[in-house]
Amino acid sequence: MSENIHHTATSTKQINVTRRSSHYCRITFDHPPLNIFGPETIPQLDEVITALETDEDVKVVVFDSAVEGFFLTHYDFLARLEDTTRLPPGPTGLQPLPDMLVRLSRAPVVSIASIRGRATGVGSELALACDMRFASREKAILSQWEVGAGVVPGGGPMARLPRLMGRGRALEVLLGADDISGDLAELYGYVNRSFPDADLDAFVDALATRIASFDKRAIGETKRFADVASLPPDFEIAPEWGVCLASIMRPAAQERIKKLMEQGFHKPGDVENRLGYHVGQLGR
Amino acid sequence: MSENIHHTATSTKQINVTRRSSHYCRITFDHPPLNIFGPETIPQLDEVITALETDEDVKVVVFDSAVEGFFLTHYDFLARLEDTTRLPPGPTGLQPLPDMLVRLSRAPVVSIASIRGRATGVGSELALACDMRFASREKAILSQWEVGAGVVPGGGPMARLPRLMGRGRALEVLLGADDISGDLAELYGYVNRSFPDADLDAFVDALATRIASFDKRAIGETKRFADVASLPPDFEIAPEWGVCLASIMRPAAQERIKKLMEQGFHKPGDVENRLGYHVGQLGR
Amino acid sequence: MSENIHHTATSTKQINVTRRSSHYCRITFDHPPLNIFGPETIPQLDEVITALETDEDVKVVVFDSAVEGFFLTHYDFLARLEDTTRLPPGPTGLQPLPDMLVRLSRAPVVSIASIRGRATGVGSELALACDMRFASREKAILSQWEVGAGVVPGGGPMARLPRLMGRGRALEVLLGADDISGDLAELYGYVNRSFPDADLDAFVDALATRIASFDKRAIGETKRFADVASLPPDFEIAPEWGVCLASIMRPAAQERIKKLMEQGFHKPGDVENRLGYHVGQLGR
Fold first, then answer.
1. Which of C178, C202, C203 minimizes the C-alpha distance to C192?
2. Helix/strand/coil for A165
3. At residue A213, what are phi and psi to the nearest 5 degrees?
4. Which terminus of chain A is more solvent-facing, meaning fewer CB atoms within 10 Å of its CB: N or C?
């Protein structure tokens, strides 16, 4: 990966890039205490993904977390909305977050999400944009929680989930908006496989090391063919973002988010840990 | 749901609508002894689905059965064929049964099939048109039995099953025409999940109650995006119906249906209970 | 099946056709010791598939193997490349191997792969072109090993695997290039189901016998509708072949294949038995 990947502003650095070898990179979310993803995370992730697109050596990247309990969680609702909306579209013409995710899916590099802790909202969307997902049986929780808060998801899951697990299970994930355990995620195909927590790292590392030993061009060409059969077209993802933003502005969402905030949203504790349960209480 | 939903002709009422709350409805098939679906069921189901399309309050509907052993089973082969063929196409331009099913899938309401007993033929097709399906591990049987009787299915399963479970398993369901247990249905993704019979109702009710507490607009918009990625186009379903009717008229089907009738088809008993087994004996 | 199917040149006969009944055929790969698929296998398989397309009686075919440990394995890298490249395109305009596979998928006959032993490369691709796949839990190994040798697969798996099991698992199979056990193949939907080895034959034979008792026209029409929803278009498969051949010519593949040859590739032994392991060692 080119050097510029190491130049993310250290003052607010939320993503660590570690090079295990010239061919194998770890991208580690490290924004304690919750790995919340906000507008200031966007340029950092963009830098990582731009580097992956152009690096001539890297063949495989593993996304993981340095924060106990959280792989990567929901968007930052404490940030000013303008800090998000003022960001210009990315190279694909999509808004920055969906832009980065579709670019990650198409990058000539194998991306693996190693999920331990919550992958909620943006965290789930990033995992879904990766080529493969593996989860800790005991510690992974996947969730598209948004509908539970009156919000329409915005980073592609309506386009990606049905292609991965079929319409019925995708609609349960999206409209049930509940926490999905590692076991259920495996049954549904939300992740490739779940492993006992003690085995997850060894499995992912062995797979990444294996792929890193293969020919980069054969990897890229094979992936590109599979992309044709498996990636949603960008125009299907494009409208999600605007509808998501519009939904956030509506009273139904504002009231629910306000209630969640009063209960401890965005702070370590039960609301963040069991977000699925808590959104289920808001409208009763 | 608007009041007209309660006005189905009581003389032959086969579908009960119960309002658990303004947001949550149960649609219960109650046509003992077998929950056979015939031409006279069509206007009743149409009334239910039209109401779901326009009701401004309802967010979630659960389809279930009041008949022991049968969720909803095959079409009525004792009814005069003209009673079916004389019905005009529905609003989508499709024939009435596939018309209602595609409208159910697109309704701005979450539909859940709670399957206990046989979901055979039309019963399976209705379940497949719902947004989600949950089954009793011990008591659910799903089946597209038609090919076993020389008949081509007509209500959409060739379009829906491969998208749900992949080509291989879909072709086994369609061309094997056998009874599928709750466990196998879960493995194949024919249903979202199967539960021990004692747990099914509590799970489905909790999920429906949960979704009923969410914002209707966020539900509808999220579902509409997922529809784009997951629903077959109507033109793919459209030709199934005519080919189904034509197949029924052919000697291969007429002879098989006649044999089944002699053995007890359309009456409570082993043929209806183990239809998969019995169609497997017809051509030997 | 018409008689000409029995006229494959006996001197190098690698495929046995057995007629269990007028409606049910077994196609048995019998090219010991490894069931390697080479240019001389192509006309033999073409003859079989042409017969299946035109036979007016046959309803179901089961592909299996007479060779212990191998269902059907990779392409023959000892054969002269010209013996493959000089073969003219088939009736679909595709090159011979992908041509036969897409024709098998569209044939008005139900095709079932009964997998015991390795289904590697071409063997996996043939299984994927079948309508259904069943595997021995203990003895089946599925594998798209190609990327591990610097080669891009050429017989359609990038088009078929994501439609069968979703993008994430398909990319793991393709880019991990590792051996997949019967159990994992079932979890991933790579096969319909895996059975204890002792039960596989009875299950497959009962299913084939069952389907053979059904009406051929109802089978064909139902399958054709499911094809629309589940088969990749030929133009998606078409470019795989040329890219595969080009990849084989590159030094990255040539070096890897040479190393494998030195270790025992194409001979009975550990390299062939555990090809997934061995390709994982080549680039370290």
1. C203
2. helix
3. -90, -5
4. C
In tens, the pLDDT along A110-161 reads 999 999 999 999 999 999 999 999 999 999 999 999 999 999 999 999 999 9
Partners of residue A163 in chain C, C-beta under 8 Å: 166-167
User: Which residues of chain B neighbour C186 with C-beta distances below 8 Å?
Assistant: 187
Burial environment of residue B121 by CB neighbours within 10 A (0 to 12, 13 to 18, 19 or more): buried
Q: How confident is the model at residue B3 (pLDDT cuts 50, 70, 90)?
A: very low
Find all residues with CB under 8 Å of B63, minimum gap 6, and list them: B27, B28, B29, B72, B111, B112, B113, B114, B126, B127, B130
Token digits of residue A135: 């989860």
Q: Which of A153, A169, A240 sits opposite B192 (nearest CB)?
A: A169
The DSSP element (H or E) to which A88 belongs, if any, is: none
Query: Looking at residues C218-243, what average pLDDT do you find?
Result: 97
Q: In angstroms, how far is CA A272 from the centroid of its own chain? A: 16
Which pair of tokens denotes residue C136?
């021995």
Q: Are C163 and C190 in contact (CB under 8 A)?
A: no
Which chains sit next to A, with 3 or more Cβ pairs under 8 A? B, C
Contact C112, C204 (CB under 8 A): yes
Cβ–Cβ gap B158/C226 under 8 Å? yes
Q: For residue A267, give both structure tokens.
A: 């702070």
Q: Is the pTM of this model over 0.90?
A: yes
Distance separating alpha carbons of residues B176 and A120, to the nearest angstrom: 40
- If one counts every other C-beta atom within 10 angstroms of the C-beta of residue A173, the result is 28
Provide, for chain A, the percentages of residues in helix, strand and coil under a 3-state DSSP scheme, each rounded to the nearest 5: 50, 20, 30
Instruction: Label residue C102 exposed, middle or buried (CB < 10 Å: 0-12, 13-18, 19+).
Output: buried
**Collapsed DSSP state (helix, strand, coil) of residue B242:** helix
Q: At what angle do helices C216-230 and B251-263 cross, to 10 degrees?
A: 110
Cα gap C58→C44, rounded to integer Å: 18
pLDDT class of B1 with cuts at 50, 70, 90? very low
> Does the beta-carbon distance from C284 to A213 stay under 8 Å?
yes
Nearest to A223 by CA among A50, A52, A59, A113: A59
**Which residue, among A1, A93, A4, A3, has the nearest Cα to A43 in the 3D structure?**
A4
Tokens read off for A211 = 């792929």
Q: Is residue A80 classed exposed, middle or buried when 0-12, 13-18 and 19+ CB atoms within 10 A define those classes?
A: exposed
If you average pLDDT over residues A20-47, what whole number do you get? 97
Q: Are A1 and A43 in contact (CB under 8 A)?
A: no
User: Which one-letter amino acid corresponds to residue C106?
Assistant: R
CB proximity C242 to A under 8 Å: no
Residue C22 burial (CB count, 10 A): 13
Please tell me which chains touch C, using 3 or more CB pairs under 8 Å as the contact test: A, B
Task: Judge: A228–C283 Cβ closer than 8 Å, yes or no.
Answer: no
Contact with chain A for residue B183, Cβ under 8 A = no
User: How far apart are alpha carbons A201 and A193 in whole angstroms?
Assistant: 13
- Give A271-276's long-range contacts (Cβ < 8 A, gap of 24+): A272/A34, A272/A70, A272/A73, A272/A118, A273/A69, A273/A118, A274/A179, A275/A74, A275/A118, A275/A120, A275/A143, A275/A145, A275/A148, A275/A179, A276/A141, A276/A143, A276/A145, A276/A148, A276/A177, A276/A178, A276/A179
ipTM above 0.90, yes or no: yes
With beta carbons less than 8 A apart as the criterion, state whether B73 and B120 touch.
yes
Neighbour-count burial for C119-146, b at 16+ CB within 10 Å, e otherwise: bbbbbbbbbbbbbbbbbbbebbbbbbbb
Q: How far is A207 from chain C (nearest CA, A)?
A: 7
Q: What is the mean pLDDT of chain B?
A: 95
Averaged pLDDT for residues B259-277: 98
Q: Calculate the alpha carbon distances from C249 to A281, B13, C122, C152 in Å.
A: 61, 71, 18, 11
